[in-house]
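Section 3.1: Structural characterization of target chains.
Under the original work plan, the team committed to producing a structural model for every single-chain target entering the pipeline before any wet-lab resources were allocated. The record below documents one such target. The sequence was received from the expression subgroup and is listed exactly as submitted; it comprises 251 residues.
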Amino acid sequence: MTVDVWEVMGTVVSLRIPDRFSDVHDTAVAGVRRVLAMYDETYSLYRDDSPLSRLARGEVALVDLDDDVRDTYARAIDWRNRTGGAFTPHRGDGVIDLSGIVKADAIAAGAEVLRANGVSEFSLNVGGDIVVAGDTTWPTAIGHPTDPSDTMTAVTLDSEWCAIATSGTFDRGEHIWRKVTDGPTIVSATVISHDIVTSDVWATAIISGGPDMAAAASADGCAVLYFDADLNSFGNEAMNRLYIRSEAPTS
């Protein structure tokens, strides 16, 4: 198993590819690097020259941006509607911020590059959000909501439950707008599904929208686990089936 690690999009990428793909490894990894860098160059609000930064400064209008950017925005609006506004591409100051969907888009695009290069088994981890592929199973830890050196549980990812995303408040503080402010404060939400965009958006929506969004993600066929501010855990039946039994949370 080869492991390639690099930084992009303000986070760390870890790509694991079995040795039997050594003949296409370098080409495949280079392709993933290019596609992740392209998403960063296009959508990052931390890059002054990105189209989204120019849009935020009012130098261009949304209609002036290319089709891919406008399609990404349209899909983000679709998710806003599906989640009743718990997920939104609009910051409180009115700036369009597509980071809530773009990292997942980039991971999905990277996975497609790997498949196009003949790599049918891999684990692509971008900042803790992961897509896996192949006939093997991938034991995967879910981190502690407030202690980055610790984990809370572990699950098994496979070809069906292949995409995991976690949203929380520890690394970046309260960076997610909370639509719901009464009831339990959710500090970490993990969602597993067959699609990384689905997992990532629902994880964000659960932080914002609370337990009702966890129920909605469950109804959408996702495995869900979240922790409140007292570190009480709440997992649905789909998530219960994915725990590595010795690592299942106790509360």
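The chain has a mean pLDDT of 91.
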